[in-house]
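Input chain follows. Return structure tokens only.
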Amino acid sequence: MTPSRTLATAAAGLAAAAAVAAPASAAPGASSDGGLDRYYSQHVTWKACTLGPDDEVGRSLDEAGARCADVTVPLDYARPDGRTIKIAISRLAASDRGHRIGTMLINGGGPGPSIDMPPYMRDLMGKAGPRYDLVGMDPRALGRSAGVDCGWPSATWVRSAGETRRSFQRSVAFARDLAARCAKTSGAELPYISTRNIARDMDIVRGALGERKISYNGASYGTYLGSVYATMFPGRLDRTVLDSSVDPRRWGPGLLAGTEGANDRALAGWAAWTAKRNATYGLGATRAGVLATVRDVLRASARKPLQVGRYRVDDTALAFVPFDYLGTDEDSQRAVLADAFRVFKQATALPAEPTKDLDEELAFLLTGADSRYGSGQSAIICGDAAAPRDPEAYWRAVQSHRKESPVFGPLAHGVNPCAFWPARPEEPLTRVGGPLPALMVAATGDTRTIYPGSLALHRLLPGSRMITLKGADVHAPYQRGYRNDCVTGQVNEYLLTGQLPAHDLTCAPEG
């Protein structure tokens, strides 16, 4: 999963959870269990999506012909008569009503907001797009769905442990501060923010829309949410696409551990690409030379933060930049990363000015402009599973992986705010599994939800089929719109016909 915009198992539930997950009754979308009837049978009022003059997301939805609504759900499903919250959804109604297939819920991963996705997905889905009512939903704690904002000085909780013990201590102080801010601003809501409750919200949305079943298209974290939903509410998913899957047995605060190898390989691929363009970027004429420049820049930022425009970038923050930009091996993204390191290299000697892309990246990383994104994302991850509380455990893990992966080992195994989170998970993780005729997509070089994770979920879901994109370093190839006609064509044919391939398939890279 991609923590910046788009970032990735226990007993099947307590008695209250089992009641909530009971099969639907005869009426479409209704449930007679757990005191939730009024939520399942509520009337959905559609309205314009634009909330104000600066609401670009709402304006783009309105221009595409979508409508928006709020669906009421309990904050605490164990107390359905208590406090409620609003879950924001958008719907782009099927334009081919005579051949309408049904409703499809979309989740773009993160965890992050997804209310903006229906127009984009319609274009991506080819002939199948106009035949679905496409619904985007902001998960609780994110976007318009009771969004959590802890007043963070960053939009992401991800930091590297850096190059030195002093750097690690800075990363610990950063994580501790993030958790303390959430305890102060959102402590009352945190116990009820989890993937299991988001899955329950999804089912109420399904019921409120009057659907016995919904189709589902999820990427990255969205694959985890989709598989949890399928386990908690069996039989309620129709056509299902899971794009770059999370291994549900590894979901939680340590979700980045194990990704360093894939990122190292992707970084090496980028370095070889950049070396061929040394006349443009000046980072080295060989792959080894470019990688040495990356290490030199990181070491320099550990000694003294680099002055890049209005930002001071130290080694705990700088390592996030290649991690973020290695989500795809497309030339356009590789060029953005090469430009970023060209600027960083200049900044090791004198203050340098960022490119437009780098300025946006550093604003995301080093200012509170998108505090809501990171706050809500961490609330879900920390609310799903507990993390080790002793900072020294993280230091030992970093040290054990530093030699093998000097850039990404300290990032993948570093401390995060879940180590200091004020609320403990209310429920165990879901033990995902059971028949689900889903179509899965996975790239062998995925740097976020690594390929073995997709294989693991594939084994847990009998009846699923998987398309493997070989030789590509890309995360969420279908939803990203990665150029591969084999992947896109197979997924769209399934969405159009409902027929899974007879067996797993392999697609070769293009160009």
